[in-house]
Design goal:
The structure holds two protein chains of two kinds.
Chain A (H helix, E strand, L loop, with lengths): L1 E5 L3 H13 L3 E5 L2 H10 L4 E5 L1 E2 L2 E2 H10 L6 E5 L4 H9 L4 E4 L4 H16 L5 E4 L3 E4 L4 E4 L2 E3 L3 H11 L6 E2 H8 L10 H13 L4 E4 L3 E4 L2
Parallel strand pairs in A: 1-2, 1-3, 3-6, 6-7
Antiparallel strand pairs in A: 4-5, 8-9, 9-10, 10-11, 12-14, 13-14
Helix pairs in contact in A: 6-7, 6-8
Chain B lengths: L8 H58 L34 E6 L4 E4 L15 E4 L3 E8 L4 E8 H37 L1 H12 L15 H52 L7 H28 L11 E2 L1 H13 L7 E2 L9 E2 L3 H18 L6 E6 L3 E6 L6 H4 L19 H12 L2 E5 L9 E6 L4
Parallel strand pairs in B: 7-9
Antiparallel strand pairs in B: 1-2, 1-5, 3-4, 4-5, 6-8, 9-10, 10-12, 11-12
The chains are: A alpha/beta, B alpha+beta.
Chain lengths: 219, 464
C-alpha cells in the first residue's frame, strides 16, 4: 500500500514510517497540511495517516476538504486527543478509524489492514488463490498447500496490493506506487522483476498478465 | 408545583402583611367602637333628657285629672316581639320592648306616677336635676314645676350593653368573613410582586452545574438587579477558570502523550530491529513496558484532572443520547487484547440511554468500569454490560468475591483490590468523582446479584 503519513512529531513519524516500510508498505511523510495537500493532488495514496494538531492547522480540516472534494481515500486519525467527542468529530468528518497516542505499532498495522480490506470490498482477511495458494492479509502470511512461503517486504507489498483487489487489473503505475516510498528511484522494469519473483515462489497461475494494461490475481 | 415553604420570602411577606393588616384593622375597629360607644351614650342620654321634658306636660295633665295621691299605670307597653297590628308605616312589623321607664315624684320623694314597667320602689337616683347611674339603670332626673315635681326617666344598662354588642357584632362579623379574602388577596399580590424574583430563582434552579450562561435580568426588580449582576460576574469568572483548566488539561494531554508515543514507537522499532540474542533486548523490553505503564498512568491522571476540574454535566444542561458513545467505547475496548471476545453486550436499550452528562465524562466512566472488569475479572468469563431503563448501566464480571472490608475503599485514590492485576488504583475514584459532579451515583456489589462470585459496578446517571 502507498501510505501518506502527516505527522509533525518527527521521532514518532520516523518510527511509524520505518515500521510500515519494514512491513513492505510505501510511506511518504510530511509535517504540514500544506505539503499534504500538494502530495495528495500528485499521488493516489491508499491510506492517509493523519495527525490532528499540525503546525499549519487542524488535520480534521484537511480531511473535511478531501471528503468535500469527493475523495474516498481511507483515513486513520492518529492523535493525542483522547476524548470521545474528538473521536466522534473525527469519524463524522470522514475518518475510517481513530488511534489515540501512544499506540502500539502492531495495533496501527492491524488497523491499516482492516481499513484497507474494508475499502477493497473484501473484509475477509483470508484470500484463496489459484494453485492452492492462501493469503492471510491480517497475519501477512502466504501458504501453498499449508506450507508457509517467505516473501520479502516488497514482494509482499506487490502481492498485497493485488490480493486486496481480486479480479481487478492494476496498472504498472499503480503497482509502482505501492512499491516505492515517495522520492525513491523507480526503474522501468522493477514491477516486472518482482512479479517474476512472486511467480517463481507462488506458481505461474497466481498472477495473470493483462497485455497492455497490467496485472491481476483471481477473477 | 413547588411546595409552600415556611422559609420562603412569599410566606414571610404574606404573614407579616396579614398580621399588620389584621392588627391595624382591629385597632381601627376598636377605635371606631370606642367612638361609637360614646356617641351611643350621648344619644341614649339625650333620649332620656328629651323624654323627661316631653313627658312632663303630659304627666302634669294626667295628674290633674286623676288626683295626686296614688301612683297609677298610665300606658301598657307592648311586649317584645309582639305584633303591632294595623301598622301602616314602613319598617319592622315587630317592635321591641319598651326599655324606658319613668317615675314622677314630688319634692318629698313620694311616688305620684310611674310607667307600667317601672318598679314601685323609687329609683336610687337622688331627686336632683341630672344623670345618675346605679348598678342596673341610667337615670335622668328632671326637676319641673319650680322644683315641686321630679320626673325620673330610667333606662336599663343591659339595654345599652345589648345595643353596643349588637353594633360591634354587626361591625366585626363582616370583617371575620373578609379576613380570609384579604389573606388570599395578599398572597396573590405578593406572588405577583415576587414573580421576577421567582423567575430568577427558577432560571438558576433549572440550570445544571455546567451551565454558566448569564442569568437574564431584563425585568428583574432593582432590589435583586445588583445581586444578579454579581452572580453573573462570578459565573463568568468561574466559566473562564474552568475553560482555562480544561484547555490546560487538553494541552497537557497532547504534550504528554506525544513524546510518550514517540518513545514507545522508537522502542518498539528497536525491539524489532535488535537481533534475538542482543544483550540490550531485555532492557528495551523493560523500557517498552515502563512506557506503556507511564502511558496508562498519565491517561488516568489526566482523567482525574478532568474530573477534578468539574467536568461532567452536559454542556447543554439537558439530557443527551449516549448510545453512540457507549458503542464506540465498547468497540474500542473489544479491540485491545484484554477485551477481545470477552465483552458481552447485545446493544439492547442502547438507543434509550440518555442522561444529563457530558459524553466525554460518560466515556471516561464507562471505559474505567469495563477496563476494571476486564483487568480484575475472571479471564474465562465474559464482562457483561447491561442497560436498565434509560439511565442505568451495569458492568459485571466473574471472579473472586471482593472482601467486604475492601469494598468501601475501592473508590479511594490509589487503592487497589487484592488482585495480581496491575492498575493505577484511580479508575473507580475517577468514576465516583464524575458521578458526584453530575448528580449521578456509582454502586458496587460483590458478589454480583444472582451469583456467588464476581463483581458488579452500576452507574446511575442523572437525568434532568
Amino acid at each position: 500500500m502507498r501510505i501518506l503519513l502527516v505527522e509533525d512529531e518527527v521521532m514518532l513519524a520516523e518510527a511509524v514510517r520505518d515500521h510500515l516500510l519494514a512491513a513492505g508498505e510505501a510511506v511518504d511523510h510530511t509535517e504540514s497540511i500544506g505539503d499534504a495537500e500538494i502530495m495528495i493532488r500528485g499521488t493516489n495514496y491508499d491510506v492517509l495517516l493523519l495527525d490532528l494538531n499540525l503546525p499549519d492547522g487542524r488535520g480534521i480540516d484537511l480531511l473535511r476538504v478531501l471528503r468535500r472534494n469527493g475523495s474516498a481515500m481511507p483515513c486513520i486519525i492518529l492523535t493525542a486527543q483522547d476524548q470521545i467527542s474528538d473521536r466522534i468529530e473525527g469519524l463524522n468528518a470522514g475518518a475510517d478509524d481513530y488511534l489515540v497516542k501512544p499506540f502500539d505499532l502492531n495495533e496501527l498495522s492491524a488497523r491499516l489492514s482492516a481499513v484497507a480490506r474494508r475499502y477493497s470490498g473484501n473484509p475477509n482477511p483470508f484470500v484463496a488463490l489459484a494453485g492452492g495458494v492462501e493469503v492471510d492479509l491480517a497475519g501477512r502470511v502466504v501458504l501453498i498447500n499449508g506450507a508457509q512461503i517467505d516473501l520479502t517486504s516488497r514482494e509482499w507489498a506487490l502481492l498485497d496490493q493485488m490480493v486486496r483487489r481480486p479480479g481487478q487489473t492494476l496498472s504498472k503505475r499503480q503497482l509502482e506506487e505501492a512499491l516505492y516510498e515517495f522520492g525513491a528511484e523507480i526503474e522501468s522494469n522493477t514491477v516486472e522483476v518482482y512479479v517474476s519473483r512472486l511467480r517463481r515462489k507462488l506458481g505461474r497461475d497466481v498472477i495473470k498478465t493483462v497485455r497492455g494494461v497490467g496485472y491481476r490475481v483471481g477473477g | 408545583m413547588r411546595m409552600f415553604s415556611t422559609k420562603s420570602l412569599q410566606f414571610a411577606l404574606t404573614k407579616r402583611l396579614t398580621v399588620m393588616v389584621g392588627v391595624f384593622w382591629i385597632a381601627g375597629s376598636l377605635l371606631a367602637d370606642f367612638t361609637m360607644y360614646h356617641e351611643m351614650q350621648e344619644v341614649f342620654d339625650s333620649s332620656l333628657v328629651k323624654s323627661a321634658y316631653r313627658y312632663a306636660p303630659l304627666m302634669d295633665d294626667y295628674l290633674k285629672h286623676h288626683g295626686r295621691d296614688t301612683a297609677t299605670v298610665v300606658v301598657e307597653s307592648p311586649e317584645q316581639g309582639e305584633n303591632k297590628t294595623g301598622d301602616r308605616g314602613e319598617g319592622d312589623d315587630e317592635i321591641g320592648a319598651d326599655y324606658l321607664m319613668y317615675q314622677v315624684r314630688d319634692v318629698s320623694g313620694r311616688l305620684l306616677l310611674r310607667s307600667a314597667n317601672a318598679e314601685e320602689e323609687p329609683f336610687s337616683a337622688p331627686l336632683l336635676e341630672g344623670f345618675y347611674t346605679d348598678d342596673h339603670f341610667r337615670i335622668y332626673s328632671a326637676v319641673v314645676k319650680d322644683g315641686a315635681r321630679i320626673i325620673q326617666i330610667a333606662e336599663p344598662l343591659s339595654h345599652r350593653r345589648e345595643a353596643l354588642i349588637a353594633s360591634v357584632s354587626a361591625q366585626f362579623l363582616p370583617i371575620i368573613v373578609l379576613i380570609p379574602a384579604v389573606i388570599i388577596g395578599i398572597i396573590f399580590a405578593v406572588r405577583q410582586g415576587l414573580q421576577p424574583v421567582r423567575r430568577v430563582r427558577d432560571d438558576i434552579e433549572a440550570r445544571s452545574e455546567g451551565n454558566l450562561a448569564p442569568i437574564e435580568q431584563d425585568d428583574a426588580p432593582d432590589e435583586i438587579h445588583t445581586m444578579i449582576t454579581a452572580v453573573n460576574r462570578l459565573m463568568e469568572k468561574l466559566d473562564a477558570a474552568l475553560r482555562a483548566e480544561r484547555t490546560f488539561t487538553a494541552h497537557s494531554a497532547h504534550e504528554l502523550r506525544t513524546p510518550i508515543a514517540a518513545a514507545l514507537a522508537q522502542t518498539q522499532r528497536l525491539l524489532l530491529e535488535l537481533p534475538a540474542d542482543h544483550p540490550g533486548l531485555k532492557r528495551a523490553q523493560q523500557t517498552e513496558e515502563s512506557l506503556k505503564r507511564l502511558s496508562r498512568l498519565s491517561e488516568k491522571l489526566l482523567q482525574l484532572a478532568r474530573a477534578e476540574a468539574g467536568v461532567g454535566t452536559s454542556p447543554t444542561g439537558k439530557n443527551q443520547k449516549l448510545g453512540t458513545t457507549l458503542g464506540l467505547v465498547i468497540d474500542d475496548l473489544e479491540r485491545v487484547s484484554d477485551g477481545a471476545g470477552r465483552i458481552e453486550w447485545d446493544g439492547k436499550n442502547a438507543a434509550a440511554l440518555n442522561a444529563n452528562i457530558d459524553v466525554d465524562a460518560f466515556a471516561i466512566c464507562l471505559r474505567n468500569l469495563i477496563e476494571n472488569a476486564l483487568k480484575h475479572g475472571d479471564e474465562n468469563q465474559p464482562v457483561v454490560i447491561e442497560i436498565k431503563g434509560s439511565n442505568v448501566i451495569r458492568v459485571s464480571n466473574g471472579g473472586d468475591v471482593v472482601d467486604p472490608r475492601d469494598m468501601t475503599e475501592l473508590t479511594a485514590r490509589f487503592k487497589r483490590a487484592q488482585t495480581k492485576a496491575r492498575g493505577a488504583g484511580l479508575g473507580l475514584s475517577i468514576v465516583e468523582t464524575i458521578m458526584q459532579n453530575t448528580g449521578g451515583k456509582l454502586t458496587l456489589s460483590s458478589p454480583r446479584p444472582d451469583h456467588v462470585d464476581g463483581f458488579m459496578a452500576e452507574l446511575w446517571l442523572h437525568q434532568s
